[in-house]
Amino acid sequence: MSTPGPIAAIEPLLAEPASAAVLCDLDGTLAPIVERPELARVPDAARVALARIADRYALTAVVSGRRATVAREIVGLEKLTYIGNHGFELLLPNAPEARSAPELGSRGRVAEEFAAGLDPAELDAVGLRVEDKGPIVALHWRGAADPAGAQELAVRIGAAAVEQGLFLHHGRMVLELRPGNEVNKGTAVESLLLGSEAAVALYAGDDTTDLDAFAGLDRLETSGRLAAAVRVGVASAEGPTEITALADLTVEGPGELIPVLAALAG
Ligand SMILES: [Mg+2]
Predict the structure, then answer these.
(1) Helix residue spans in 57-109 (DSSP H)
(2) Of 37, 84, 164, 215, which has the fewest Cβ atoms less than 10 A away?
(3) Distance 210 CA to ligand 1 centre (A)
(4) For the whole model, what pTM was predicted?
(5) How far is ligand 1, taken at its centre, from the CA of residue 160, in Å?
């Protein structure tokens, strides 16, 4: 589908940056997807633009599935706000630690306890990698020795996790086991924006979980809390088709997002 040019699409933000918010997903949006997630990095040009955006806009946030402190390390900017673990964590500018979403209550460790019971030999046999992210446990098969076998094992583990009361979330070659289903990128973006001065907001993302954030913007726009919202879809072969179908502006990968960030930075 065709979308307007970058400048036309972001005009609602350029009119009054001090009353606008810029929110971006990290992996696949700011940072190109890499085989080993620990090697992900944000291009310097994107970092420079984000730093300038943070100085000019009401709110600048990175919204990630990673731990909030890890997202901040990768971006390398202390003055941004970080939503981590898909909304389960909030790390404010220059704060030493992230705080947990209050909705989580006493269920902060249920996913971790479930993962402790998994058989390491069975995981190793197919190369399924378990990432402990605090309240969330992620099962990764990107780069696995046996990707099909690893995905199959992840699905089986997921079914057992659901029986234990955990919730599943599917991403790009990752299955997450979560302690609850009432928190997502959308609810987190919504509460962050409600607590800000922003009357206009932009969200850029590439994956299924970013559709929740798009929905969060929709709700705020419908209620009139936001005068305008701009959804930027970062297209990829692995991402859902809705991400570009629902977008106001589509870019082809993180590289094409950089000029949009530069234009926002002014
Ligand atoms: Mg992403």
Answers:
(1) 68-75
(2) 164
(3) 7
(4) 0.84
(5) 26
**How far, in Å, is the centroid of ligand 1 from the Cα of 260?**
17
pLDDT tens, 40-49? 999 999 999 9
Selecting among 25, 206, 207, 248, the annotated active-site residue is: 25
**Backbone φ, ψ for residue 264 (5° rounding):** -65, -40
Sequence letter at residue 220 = L
Q: How many residues does the chain have?
A: 266
CB count in 10 Å sphere of residue 88: 26
> Where do the domains of the chain lie, and which CATH numbers do they carry?
6-101+183-265 (3.40.50.1000), 106-178 (3.30.70.1020)
Q: Alpha-carbon distance 131 to 80, whole Å?
A: 25
pLDDT of the residue at 4: 58
Annotated catalytic residue 218: no
Cα–Cα dist 65/80, whole Å: 16
**Arithmetic mean of pLDDT, 207-216:** 96
CA distance linking residue 33 with residue 28, whole number of Å: 5
180: left (phi over 0), alpha (psi -120 to 50) or beta: beta
**Tens of pLDDT along 50-104?**
999 999 999 999 999 999 999 999 999 999 999 999 999 999 999 999 988 877 8
* 51, 71 contact by CB (below 8 A): no
